[in-house]
């Protein structure tokens, strides 16, 4: 994580919205999200907690109810 924050600092975008990040840095962070949203990584005994500032309906590609 420290390396990633250093990338943001070096690019001068640490406090900037993700839309303003250079393409290669944005791609790096977006790749890391893939495992979070992969339902194959969730079992009945898994506990997940997250906070997002904004999640747009157009960005949702699938939804699964976990009971």
**Main beta sheet:** none
Succession of helices and strands: HH
Distance between the termini: 32 Å
Structural class: mainly alpha
Which outline best applies?
elongated
Put simply, the count of helices is 2
What does this structure look like?
- There is one protein chain.
- The protein is 31% helix and 0% strand.
- The longest helix is centred in the middle third of the chain and has 11 residues, at 23-33.
- The model has no long low-confidence stretch (mean pLDDT 83).
- The protein contains 2 helices and no strands.
- It is elongated, with a radius of gyration of 15 Å.
- With 67 residues, the protein is mainly α.
- It has helices at 2-11, 23-33.
Explain briefly what this protein structure is.
The protein is mostly helical and 67 residues long. The chain is 31% helix and 0% strand. The chain has helices spanning 2-11, 23-33.
What secondary-structure arrangement, pairings included, does this model have?
Layout: H1 2-11, H2 23-33
Which characteristics define this entry?
67 residues, mainly alpha, 31% helix, elongated
């Amino acid at each position: 994580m420290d390396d990633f924050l250093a990338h943001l600092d070096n690019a001068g975008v640490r406090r900037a919205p993700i839309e303003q990040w250079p393409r290669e840095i944005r791609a790096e962070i977006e790749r890391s999200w893939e495992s979070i949203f992969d339902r194959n990584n969730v079992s009945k005994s898994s506990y997940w907690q997250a906070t997002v500032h904004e999640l747009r309906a157009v960005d949702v590609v699938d939804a699964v109810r976990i009971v």
